[in-house]
Give the backbone structure.
Amino acid sequence: MQPRSPAVVGRHREIEGLHRLLADARGGRGGAAFLAGEPGIGKSRLAATATSRALDDGMAVLRGRVGAIGTMVAFRPFTEALLSLVRRGGMPATEALGPYRRVLGRLVPDWDDGTSHDTSASPVLLGEAVLRLLALVGKDRGCLLVLEDLHGADPETLAVVEYLLDNLDGQPIALVATTRDEVCPAYELASSSAQRGAAGLVALPPLQRHDVAELAAGCLEVPVDDVPERLVHQLWQDSVGSPFVVEELLQEAARSGQLVTSPDGRVQVADDLRGNVPDAVVRSVNSRTEQLGPQSQNILLLAAVIGHRFPLSVVRKAARVDERLLLTTLRAGTAAQLVEPDEPAPDWYAFRHPLTADALVTGLTPTERSALARRCADAVEELYPGLPGEWCPMVAELAERGGDRGRAGRLFALAGRRSFDDGSAGSAVNLLDRANALLVDSDVVDRADALSSLLLALSATGRLEHLATHAETVDELADRNLDSRKVAALHVQLANAEMIAGRWADALTHVATARSLLGPEADDADLAPVDVVAANLELARTSPDRIETASALATRAVAAAERAKLPEVACEALDLLGILAREHDLDRSIAYFHRARQVAEDHSLAFQRVCSHIFQAGTICLADGGVRELERARQQALRVGAMPLAYEIDGILGQQAVLRSEYTLAAELIDECLEVTRRLRVGRSATYFLATKAMLEAHQGRRSAMEAALAEAANWGGERASYELPYSYGLARTFCALLEEDRELAEADMAQALEYDEQNPTTLHMVGKNGLGLLLDVLSGRSGWAQFKTVTATAASGMRWNKQYVQLAHAVLLGRDGQVEAANAAVLAAVDTASLYPMASQLGLRLVAEPAHADGWGEPVGWLRQAEEYFHNADIPAVASACRGLLRQFGATVPQRRSGSEHVPASLRQLGVTAREYEVCRLLLDRIGNKAIAARLHISPRTVEKHVAGLLTKTQQPDRDALSSFVRSVLRN
């Protein structure tokens, strides 16, 4: 009798699917499959079948498995997979990997030059590095990557898997992963990937009755018809279709004498063949371990307490046996089908199935199990002082099983801090959350330290849904006499987290509580963190002096942080000062950011260094419009796993794409950012992204879509929404009105933007005060040289977006004074400045064409022809029409644009309404007279009168009011 069936049964369709997956990978058409099911259902066996076929076909094969117990160090399955390749000598020449070789130092120790943990913690970057390596390995032959037991994987591992899934197309790579079909992140990833077509989800059902008979025949080495019907019935009933349980039941039945072979070779069943599955498996495993002797049995029990996989060094130390007995036990256990070498990891063994380990510990009392867990924990600490890497969470898990909650909590907290420092913020949250729960009844200082680390990790990951619960914990710690300084520090962290979540009132409450606890005699170390959070919160207040107050607080925070040697706080305060200096001195602003980056560099603060880099890059972008430094900063954010920062950069890049008229790219960036922030309920970022979306719609003349985005921003933002009002009026509404050729509305919207900015000054400096607002005022005659000099005295007027409008305003003022050559030079300078911004450039030329023609300077006809062509092609009919009207007024030939009927609603087209009549229709909705309509469309009032008369006839409406109501109902539908 064989312990396992020589063939996989009942999985023919699944095996064919895996064979197709491998064939596609060999042909350069990569893909993935998740094998999902309950323990014992055959996931690993099916994965092994794929492995064997891949090896037979000459493919490269890499295998990795999630750690033995609990949450291990991030990316462990990938480390094991790559190390298995290294051991077999299958690693290709790595020159082709370029900088990604250093990234992979996180997974391959020999490639680590000491910087891998700073530069490669991002799952996105690491995923790209793994993808490139696998493509090299599989070149011309295909590559199979097998990842097992992902149900226990850390968040970073799953993030890399997700990246691979989304990028396998066109690669010679097949990915096969196994996971239990239970509620867990891995199964959610498998399900979502299958829904979007990124992977196949192979759900393994229990075996059918005839499959159980075939499996039994394979183990018994007899034809399927020779398996007694009674045996098949009992196996089917007791195993519930689990292949592992079927094999265990057969071995137990044979060992206990319930199965005998007659002289003619036929299998016969004893009369007392009975048993339920759990008991049968436990009996089967225990009967085999008992045959190994007491010492070997104790060794396997210790291994089972560690988990499905176990390190030999720890088991030997905990069992206090010599190497000879350990190896004897392993050989005997292997022969008894209990354990097997864990191939990807040397010095590690694994039980044949997780149920084997469970069966071994089932017979232990809770006291016995706790004692063995403590012995294993002590053994690890003796062997690996300081508990580096995965040993720390392993001992934490064992300590929890051993009943020592305090020790377990402290070690989970240590593992969480290390994970955060490595950039694995998602794993850090999981570990610190466990620590926080375990330390509930422990020393208040330990609990406070764990909670402090947890709040930091939550803020970095944006997981801010349960801050109210953590605030209650802080109050509880205060009631248990935690030192008031530590309580104040926790309130500061809560304030920072609430600020990130966009809940400003709650954040201010925490700041006030912290100040109250510290009192008037607070020292620098306590005061600096409070001041820097308070300074940031000042920017969210609706107050005309908020910039001045924030600057004072940030300046005080920098000085206190430097005296107290708090580099993280100093960096944050310097960054804030850099933001606040933008309006008046760009060089000084950049210098603040550079100083903050240097402090972060000197103290190895990767996260703070990235923050300062982002702010510096943003200021450079404001100055010259370039986005290269922003893209570099984004890569730095990804490398340290700071995803919220990366999304904020994407928001800035999306805004810049709008300004550059790269609307498709802008939509992709903004929609991705919105998807994440909506899912995470991060209101602070959502309002900014929605305001940017409104700006995207406005710059394409889509008023309804703009209004919808602004309405959603107001609903999302709460307190934050008012912070975006200058932005939404100055960069969205004003432009939408200009593209509708409604100058009066545009001027009103700009005035509103400036009023909001006066009440609540923005740090963006692009809303119009230093640019477009000046040009509109100059064009209307409300402003002259005095206002021009006031605006140009600010550094913000030199920002590239603002500068184009300042230069156009300068040209208009010069032309008005008869300085023709100077005006022409100013326009040329403006055109050069505006070269990054196609729509803004053409709109600016359309705006200044009228005063240029009136005052006799520039080339207004040429400008209008360019603008008309641009806005016609951009489907902005109002501006294109205005340009044609002005060209007629100037006596120039006008391009004939007979198209446009496609913009007329079908119901109006059926009545014979023309494109020009439709333009008049839309303006009738504003209840304005013929002269105003004529001015907007640059036609005569008499022509408008004819169009209105034609519309009344075609629509059979009695008067203008009825016509307006009719058109409104048509447009609404």
